[in-house]
Amino acid sequence: MKLNFELVPDSCWYSNLRSILTPAQWDVVRKEAYARAGGKCAICGGVSPRLEAHEQWEYDEKNAVQKLKTVIAVCKNCHEVIHIGRTTLMGGEERASAHFMKVNGCSYSEYRKALGEANEAHRRRNLIPEWKLDLSYLKKFC
Ligand SMILES: [Zn+2]
């Protein structure tokens, strides 16, 4: 799936870069992502005057390492799909599911299946009490 859900484990306290970096540092990382995007969502390619910075993490469950893969600029619709848990709580699941199906060119049952898989991975990752953080991605900004 081109656009998929990214559920951050509950035990990842520092899953938000904004809580680790100073506002000035975060600005550098964020603006580099916007510059790379050139006004288009990095996932769906939609042109948007207001892109949002999104942190993509990788999870090495065997070694309990949460690694920052990249920071990309995405449109609001894609961002809502990525954070489907929060979006559903805010009452936006219908719009998010429609966007997911449009971007991925898939059916509602495929949407449900992908959501089930994401929830399963989330449950599994929540069993790991403490994740080690790998922020080597940020080295290029130093
Ligand atoms: Zn998008």
Largest sheet: 3 strands, mixed
The largest sheet has its strands arranged as 1-2-3
Distinct ligands: zinc ion
What's the tally of helices? 5
Low-confidence stretches: none
Strand content: 15-25%
Whole-number radius of gyration? 15 Å
Distance between the termini: 33 Å
The global form is globular
Domain module tally: 1
Give the key terms.
142 residues; alpha+beta; three-stranded mixed beta sheet; 5 helices; 3 strands; globular; binds zinc ion
Structural features, described:
- This protein is of the alpha+beta class and 142 residues long.
- The protein has one domain (17-137).
- Helix content is 42%, strand content 15%.
- The chain has a three-stranded mixed sheet with strand order 1-2-3.
- Strand 1 and strand 2 (65-74) form a beta hairpin.
- Helix 2 crosses helix 4.
- Zinc ion is lined by residues 41, 43-44, 46, 74-75, 77-78.
Q: How is this fold's topology laid out?
A:
Blueprint: H1 23-37, E1 52-60, E2 65-74, H2 76-82, H3 84-89, H4 93-104, H5 108-126, E3 132-134
Parallel strand pairs: 2-3
Antiparallel strand pairs: 1-2
Helix pairs in contact: 2-4
Bound molecules: zinc ion.
Zinc ion is lined by residues 41, 43-44, 46, 74-75, 77-78.
In short:
This protein has 142 residues and is of the alpha+beta class. It is 42% helix and 15% strand.
